[in-house]
Design goal:
Strand content: over 45%
Low-confidence stretches: 96-102
Strand order of the largest sheet: 1-2-5-4-3-6
Structural class: mainly beta
Oligomer: single chain
Number of strands: 12
Shape: elongated
Largest sheet: 6 strands, antiparallel, barrel
Distance between the termini: 51 Å
Length: 172
């Protein structure tokens, strides 16, 4: 199977191994529900060559982290080889796969809603320069930043994002 880099979309970056049996933490820009055991593999750049690693196990740890086990990666030592490496999938493996869906950028224009407060406003920009991704939201003509880690649901059909803002969020 020949994998072309231009057909891949970055979905996140591997963090440290989880446990001693070869499980690896993947910090992702995508809804973890979009990445699952239904996907046969994740591609990792190994010495400049895109290499597919077949998924053996998958479980969601948080809104931005999944724990993945790969076939043949069965120790903490083998899992350490992935630390800091970027993870990719072929564009056609993601539910949304057009030019604007790389990372969180595709949610620009979506309406953000909090479970307690209701509608907050539209996403006007995404700051994804660091691992802590921030959504810029226009709230009553004032820009607010909401960490992507607070996102609970992304609904592409309705172009809605649901968040759970902590108590005291508006007092900052």
């Amino acid at each position: 199977m020949m994998i072309k880099k231009e057909e891949l979309i970055k979905i996140g970056q591997f963090a440290k191994p989880h446990g001693i049996k070869g499980e690896i933490s993947l910090v992702t820009d995508y809804d973890p529900a979009d990445i699952s055991c239904d996907d046969p593999y994740i591609v990792c750049d190994m010495d400049g060559i895109p290499v597919p690693f077949f998924i053996d196990s998958y479980r969601q740890k948080s809104n931005t982290t999944v724990l993945i086990g790969f076939d043949g990666i069965d120790s903490e030592e083998k899992a350490k080889l992935f630390t800091g490496k970027r993870a990719y999938v072929p564009a056609d493996m993601l539910p949304l796969h057009d030019e604007d869906t790389s990372g969180w950028k595709y949610v620009t224009g979506y309406t953000v809603s909090d479970e307690k407060l209701g509608t907050i406003g539209p996403v006007t920009d995404i700051d994804d320069k660091t691992i802590n991704i921030l959504l810029t939201v226009d709230c009553k003509e004032k820009e607010i930043l909401i960490p992507a880690a607070l996102v609970t649901t992304v609904d592409p059909e309705r172009k809605m994002i649901e968040v759970t803002l902590p108590d005291g969020f508006w007092e900052i």
